[in-house]
Amino acid sequence: MNIYSSRPVVLCLSGHDPSGGAGLQADIEALLAQGCHAAPTITALTVQNTVNVSDFRVLDREWILAQANAVLSDSPVAAVKLGMLGSVDMVATVVELLSAHPHLPMVCDPVLRAGGGGSLGKDEVGYAMREQLLPLATIATPNLPEARILADLPDGSADECAQKLLRFCKHLLITGGHGDEHEVHNRLYSRDGSRRTFTCQRLPGSYHGSGCTLASALAGRLALGEGLESAVQSALDYTWRTLRDAEQLGHGQFVPRRLPLDFCS
Fold first, then answer.
1. What region holds the Pyridoxamine kinase/Phosphomethylpyrimidine kinase domain (predicted)?
2. How many angstroms separate the CA atoms of 148 and 168, rounded?
């Protein structure tokens, strides 16, 4: 039997996507690529594919707490990644869970829309996340449409959304992949007034699971002990490579290739 040193464990609370493009499968693959171990807690079941989402069901509170606490009581969790929660009650459940572990770095990916545009939670879920979860997060990673929902600024710029949201969270990474500029501008804001823009080449096409990939990679880098700004850069670089190498597995968006072809060889 081979004995390896333990990889950092990252607790993931996210929805299940049967297409495998987003949700917990994206979390698992992205964390494996960082050299971490993903411990997935299913928050919701969805009916979706690479085209869009048509339905979802949020799991019962007791099931969420039981899944997560089984991991927390057994493994030395190094970080937490949040994805789809789907309901205001689920937000309250996760707040209760994480309030008992305030030392853990937490990356909050406020999943409110599928890549195809379908809803994965009413806007009230976003507001509950803003008020209750963002204060517990190390960093939140909304794209600009999600940041506008969270900030209640339908036409707000990234700067305007950040100004409002930094009242709730310490660090905010607003990704710019939903625009049409030649370059993508991903903006990191901090409550102390510092900010940094990470620029990358825009790739053609649209992608299913890019936000999950980024947030999970970032959680993995933090679990490994990397500093925040460096972790953001590492996660953005990794995510861009997964999009560059993405595959069209269905009739809709491309799916990021998060693991190399020879990963299991």
1. 17-253
2. 14
In the chain, how many domains are there?
Answer: 1
What's the first-to-final CA gap in the chain, in angstroms? 19
Which pLDDT does position 117 carry in this prediction? Answer: 47
Write down the pLDDT at residue 4.
Answer: 59
- Residue 254: inside a domain: no
Q: What's the pLDDT at 18?
A: 96
Q: For residue 121, is it within any domain?
A: yes
pLDDT at position 180 is 66
Give the torsion sign (CA, 107, 109, 110, 111): negative
Return mean pLDDT, the chain: 91
CATH of residue 220's domain is 3.40.1190.20
Per the rule left: phi > 0, alpha: psi between -120 and 50, beta: everything else, 225 is: left
> What residue numbers bound the domain in which 156 lies?
9-245
